[in-house]
């Protein structure tokens, strides 16, 4: 999309930079992460779907893998669009289908990450509560997974269905949406941004509580808590660091960018152009999540780590360590 059509020198320079960034830099970066993510998520899917759904944690992780794989399928289309292949028909496919699938998968994955943090919180910190036993039930986890997919599809799929207008000469994703489609796009954007911030605050609360609880547990049994504490903090803060790095920048600029796309928005062409560039750059950071999720699985899920090490005998010695009951809790954070 070209938001600048002016003869001003500053805007012309910005447009030139934009062409380099979106037509040359981003396609290379997306191709690299697409290749890496295909290998990593293929391995993650191969491991997870060879084990039964014996816990709610495994149910959520399997659904995260599905969301990541669906998101991964949209990357080649994004590369094609950036390179300018396929013309308007390629842009139409991206706007109507693959972009919707991208956001559907991303926010579904974010929701499952928050559900995992909530389940871990009740299992470790509130293990004696009725809610803990309720959330540990496999049927409950499957019901929450289906509910998550259902809600996300309800809010996201109309963005595809309502993109049914004829293609204009000056093509843009918003231009092919009906009036209802533009309104629904705004509603779904605000809803998903709200989902993100609720999930983020929930994860911060849950994993901060878990860290404090594990630290107090080691102090109480008079064990050396330094190594265990470092391992616990490493697994917890690796998740939060990935979450903040991949998702926070995009969601900071998501709302103003969406508002700038509205037909009656009072944004200058330069501001629209700037918001578009920031959106594309931060969107790439969210795409990196599919490469980093398998790393999180390794640090946070003992079952995943053990199965992976079993398939890699040269590293299996790393897994032969004495463990305690508290250690199991840490390994499954």
From TrEMBL:
Superkingdom: Eukaryota
Subcellular location: Cell membrane
GO molecular function: G protein-coupled purinergic nucleotide receptor activity
Chief place where the protein resides: membrane
Annotated signal sequence range: none
Domain G-protein coupled receptors family 1 profile span(s) in chain numbering: 40-297
Recorded GO CC terms: plasma membrane
TM ranges: 28-49, 56-77, 97-118, 139-157, 194-215, 236-252, 283-301
Similarity comment: family membership: Belongs to the G-protein coupled receptor 1 family.
The protein's name: G-protein coupled receptors family 1 profile domain-containing protein
């Amino acid at each position: 999309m070209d938001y600048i059509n002016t003869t001003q020198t500053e805007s012309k320079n910005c447009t030139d930079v934009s062409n380099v960034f979106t037509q040359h830099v981003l396609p290379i970066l997306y191709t690299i992460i697409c290749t890496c993510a295909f290998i990593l998520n293929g391995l993650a899917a191969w491991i997870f779907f060879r084990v039964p759904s014996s816990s709610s944690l495994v149910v959520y992780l399997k659904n995260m893998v599905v969301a990541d794989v669906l998101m991964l399928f949209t990357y080649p289309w994004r590369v094609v669009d950036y390179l300018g292949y396929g013309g308007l028909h390629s842009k139409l496919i991206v706007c109507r289908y693959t972009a919707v699938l991208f956001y559907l998968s991303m926010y579904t994955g974010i929701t499952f990450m928050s559900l995992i943090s909530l389940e871990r919180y009740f299992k470790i910190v509130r293990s004696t509560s009725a809610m803990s036993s309720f959330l540990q039930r496999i049927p409950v986890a499957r019901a929450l997974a289906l509910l998550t997919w259902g809600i996300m599809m309800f809010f996201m799929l109309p963005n595809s269905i309502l993109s049914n207008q004829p293609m204009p000469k000056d093509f843009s994703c918003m231009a092919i949406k009906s009036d209802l489609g533009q309104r629904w796009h705004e509603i779904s954007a605000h809803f998903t941004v709200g989902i993100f911030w609720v999930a983020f605050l929930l994860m911060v609360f849950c994993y901060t509580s878990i860290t404090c609880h594990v630290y107090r547990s080691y102090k109480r049994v008079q064990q050396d808590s330094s190594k265990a504490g470092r391992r616990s903090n490493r697994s917890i803060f690796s998740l939060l660091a990935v979450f903040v790095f991949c998702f926070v920048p995009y969601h900071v600029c998501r709302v103003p960018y969406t508002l700038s796309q509205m037909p009656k928005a009072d944004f200058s062409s330069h501001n629209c152009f700037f918001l578009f560039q920031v959106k594309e750059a931060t969107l790439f950071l969210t795409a990196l999540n599919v490469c980093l999720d398998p790393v999180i699985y390794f640090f946070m899920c003992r079952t995943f780590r053990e199965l992976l090490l079993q398939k890699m005998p040269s590293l299996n010695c790393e897994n032969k360590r004495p463990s305690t009951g508290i250690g199991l809790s840490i390994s499954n954070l």
